[in-house]
Amino acid sequence: MKIxxxxxxxxxxxxxxTMAVIAQKCPHIKVTxxxxxxxxxxxxxxxxxxxxxxxxxxxxxIVAHSRGKNLFFSxxxxxxxxxxxxxxxxxxxxxxxxxxxxxxxxxxxxIELCARQIARVSKTDKIVVEKSTLPVRTAEAIKSILDxxxxxxxxxxxxxxxxxxxxxxxxxLLSPDRVLIGGDTTEExxxxxxxxxxVYANWVPKERILTTNVWSSELSKLTANAFLxxxxxxxxxxxxxxxxxxxxxxxxARAIGMDSRIGPKFLKAxxxxxxxxxxxxxLNLVYISKSFGLNEVADYWExxxxxxxxxxxxFSKNIVSxxxxxxxxxxxxxxxxxxxxxxxxxxxxxxxxxxxxLINEQAKIAVYDPKVDYKQVISDLNYLETRTDEQNRxxxxxxxxxxxxxxxxxxxxxxxxxxxxxxxxxxxIYDSMQKPAFVFDGRNLLDANKIKEIGFIYQEIGS
Length: 463
Ligand code: NAD
Ligand code: UDX
Known about the structure:
Pfam family, one: UDPG_MGDP_dh_N
CATH topology of the largest domain: Rossmann fold
Strand order of the largest sheet: 3-2-1-4-5-6
EC number: 1.1.1.22
Number of strands: 14
Enzyme class: oxidoreductase
Strand content: 5-15%
Number of domains: 3
Protein name: UDP-glucose 6-dehydrogenase
Distance between the termini: 58 Å
Bound molecules: nicotinamide-adenine-dinucleotide, uridine-5'-diphosphate-xylopyranose
Structural class: alpha/beta
């Protein structure tokens, strides 16, 4: 089937960038991204592309290139579904916060709502694509809903997980390591796979487009995230051992990364991984394994999360003990709140948990992040439900100017690896701080020698 009309349900960090790139690379396809969130859609349509809701280097230009031509953002979900030949489901699949599987399983209520809506609205055959990260065998549930509540039209379900990382989304989408498409082994299933392959083949070399059965595709996504997160927890585990033994984790990472079997990527010790995916997907994997009675498999992967929680907690504990075991009323400046550089996303950011620990000790937190505003910081802390909104506001401020954020502080904690942090006038920052002035570098970002020379007491991870 020649594809000329695509719709994507969910205009978030995945749906927005992914569809913007498809639209740019396939000018012959009309791409409509729909969402229930009116404010989000209004921002995607904002004339000034600096105001689109997702910050990603290069994304503004790509949106500007196609928007209004073959790329549309809309709240008219039914209309877009009805017109499309391919419907991507790219809604959120967070960890369940209630009922059975609470705190572990993926919450599929948004997925099911989408399936029911597609079933209700569709009058012509459709290919439905799982773009969201889903538990293995979810396609079965989607198919059952579509087949039993639809208008007798034919649906093919494909799994096409997204591997982009935030902060490099545009680069990752333009030049993906691979595109994975899973579908039914039947003739209709294979035809549906081919239709989607043809879309990607507009810019992705065919040898990088991998096709599998649906279950392999669904499970590969959880597996990829589990392996990546495991590497971070592994190097973070070694960072603690380095601190006790005089080894330096940066040197260890370099030494092992030169082994071509290990490779150099994803070996950066840190205050702990964050982001909306790693923890959620591993918890989901643990839950699925347990539900099949595979307790050893579940325990193996759960350890990745346990290690990550430990790494975050040990960072805040070290701040308290180094600052003479009391940080009550001391100003501590946070450089960075986003879960990594080059994104405005703060979901599961280590900064949130470190701040929560330090507020428990009555510290005053002053946040500076180039892309995150005060409203978001407070909303992240409120979400933990540790204390009231008013109490959080009493303990946390945010600044648009980094020098103001740091002035009079007892310590600086680097929580995100934004490049600009390296370029500051660190002497000026030092001069404005309480003495002794401490820097706790949760990203091993700053030039240790330079910072120490100025007079800071500098502590990094894993040395
Ligand atoms: P997001 O929260 O940024 O966006 C999801 C959007 O879906 C929201 O705007 C929400 O309003 C909308 N939505 C929910 N239900 C809807 C409905 N019934 N109709 C219309 N709109 C609806 O989430 P995200 O970060 O884009 O993630 C989406 C999925 O992609 C998740 O399953 C996630 O695991 C996966 N994923 C995310 C990343 C990432 O880097 N963020 C990478 C790969 C995969
Ligand atoms: C991840 C996967 O990489 C991506 O393929 C998937 O589609 C979504 O989940 P993302 O969470 O956006 O992407 O960013 P990623 O670069 O993986 O970083 C995740 C977290 O790990 C960040 O907090 C990052 O700072 C941390 N990290 C990463 C480290 O601490 N050390 C590293 O070496 C790499």
